Amino acid sequence: MDVDELYAVHVDDVYRYILSLCANKQVAEDITSETFLKAIQSIDKFKGECHIRVWLCQIAKNTYYNFAKRNNFVTDMPADLGSQGSLELRLVDKSQSLEIHQVLHLLDEPYKEIFSLRVFAELSFADIGGIFNKSEGWARVTFHRAKNKIKERLQ
Fold first, then answer.
1. Is residue 61 domain-shared with residue 90, that is, in the same domain?
2. pLDDT for 56-75, tens place per residue?
3. Is the residue at 75 inside a domain?
4. Where are the alpha helices (DSSP H) in 71-122?
């Protein structure tokens, strides 16, 4: 895959993932650009042990957290809501979407990040587990717990 194709295929996923972490379009655009610059510079280090999208999200996450440290941002890593159920469908409703995003932002890690990776970046549980160096089962359980935490806070 050449650089242009890499960017075209994965830019939206990386952008949505970072936007779910920071909720700031400008920051998400900047971090996405920096992510692809870093990826291109270190593409020879990619060993293919995970999906390239997972690798890009790892770079993006690290880039964002370094940016946040430098700029004294408060960060909450994304948590998953769980399996695709009614809570995810509520994200379609704009008024409820804002409320869910506000609750999501208050979750502890790793719940916030797991939720974002699953719902917004649409990663598989296997890919999410790979990002955290954990099992697919761990990712599923963590997502389910995050989803329950969000539901509790919404009630």
1. no
2. 988 998 898 888 888 766 55
3. no
4. 86-90, 94-106, 111-119
